[in-house]
Amino acid sequence: KARHRLREFDTGDRFSRLPLPRAAVLLPLMVRGGRLHLLLTVRSLQLRRSPGEVCFPGGKREATDKDDIDTALREAKEEVGLQPEKVEVICRLMPGIDKMNNLVTPVVGFIEETFQVTPNPDEVSEVFVVPLEYFIKPLNYKTFSYKTSSGYSTRIHCFIYHDQEHRKSFKIWGLTAHFAVFLALVIFGERPTFEVDYDLDNLFSSSENYFTNLYASIHERKKSNL
Q1: Residue 80 domain-assigned?
Q2: Its Gene Ontology biological processes (predicted)?
């Protein structure tokens, strides 16, 4: 059922011609105890950009990458030791734009529950999993509005997830939370316990409008800078 829902939201390469630097992340889904879970990482404290923050495996596109899927799989292998052939890639969802103005494409794939993580300590300090349902029915959630550098107002989701396995809490927010929420909305087709920036009865078209407005605001700013 999840595969079917996700394929309906596949964007393919429809945004591949946008003139922004490209990046991609892998949203690794696994079934654990009959429930869908999402694998996340914590960035190494040695990294210059966003040290210690929760994110998905991923990064900037390299010249040798064929497409966004290639980028996401290569980065997942480098960061957590996930072999590309061990990922059942399902789709690419609506992209986002990070604070460096990279176009970030989320690639969704299923991995086995038995996957043994081998984090690269230069890039990743911890790896943990969260039930996907948490991103529509959280126990600890807050939101704040954020104005992009181009003046576009958007909503930032922030989740605190207490992980029993690690006996610690993780803060999941920003673009990572944005992708996790959208993934959960697509798969479950349920209304979350908090407000979102989409028309839930027209999720695909409203998410496309959200992205188009965000992109237009950045592009207008670039043109005005020129």
Answers
A1: yes
A2: coenzyme A catabolic process; nucleoside diphosphate metabolic process
Q: Measured between alpha carbons, how far is 12 from 185 in angstroms, rounded to an integer?
A: 19
Distance CA 218, CA 58 (A): 22
pLDDT tens digit string along 44-98?
878 777 778 999 999 999 999 999 999 999 999 999 999 999 999 999 999 999 9
How far apart (Å, rounded) are the C-alpha atoms in residues 69 and 108?
9
Strand duo 22-32 + 103-110: pairing: parallel
Residue 39 near residue 172, CB atoms below 8 Å: no
Q: Is residue 46 part of a domain?
A: yes
Rounded to whole angstroms, the Cα distance separating 137 from 120 reads 32
Query: How is residue 215 annotated by DSSP?
Result: H
Residue 42 has, within 13 A of its CA and on its CB side, a CA count of 12
Structural domain containing residue 152: 1-220
Task: Say how many domains are in the chain.
Answer: 1
Tell me if 226 is assigned to some domain.
no
Q: What is the pLDDT of residues 183-210, one digit of tens each?
A: 999 999 999 999 999 999 999 999 999 9
Q: What is the DSSP string of 68-133?
A: HHHHHHHHHHHHH---GGG-EEEEE---EE-TT--EEEEEEEE--TT------TTTEEEEEEEEGG
Q: What CATH number is attached to the domain comprising 88?
A: 3.90.79.10
pTM (2 d.p.): 0.95
